[in-house]
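S.,

Sequence below, as promised.
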Amino acid sequence: MLLVQHVESGEKFVLKQIPISERSAEKESAAFSEVDVLSRLSHPNITTLYGAWRSGSVLNILMEFADRGSLADVLKAKAGSMMLFDEDAILDWFVQIVAALRAMHARSILHRDLKAANVFLTSRNLIKVGDFGISKMLEKNGGLASTTIGTPYYLAPEVSVLHDVQDHACRKGCSMSTERERSDRITYCLQTWNQLRVESRLSRSS
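The prediction came back faster than expected:
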């Protein structure tokens, strides 16, 4: 990742450079898939793609820069200060992240690695969900992804079964509870997952 600046406007961008010459065909395809996914998404709470090009054996992806860093950085800094977050700020972040997820799901896109380190903030307190390196486009709405992938710490509890957009809801719960003990996070995710299953059954029976 490189931080670059436009010579005339002074605006800053993030340049992600992915070597593809030494990658397998599958990994090379995944790199181009990230560009494809980002090009299909246009939402104020999702990192904007400004361009992508190949230079020799390197794939360059030019993206929006969030000047406050990742949500993980913000959480770490707050933990060091021994101060609590304002509840309104947490709710504001939560609503923005859910809005980003809704935009993804509307296009049958799964992020598959949603966590605090992949959620970014601007100085205007605007959320930007990023890093779609292992995201997946489902073939149709309501489709399922059969692979288990992503950061294990944030995986839905029932990773042994096919996962769909409900997996994102569980990951969101884990991301927003980063300061809790691990056991509390697992309990929270299990409760979230079980509630989603109950609601899903009710909606199908009605």
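Residues 75 and 179 are 8 Å apart (CA to CA).

Coffee later?
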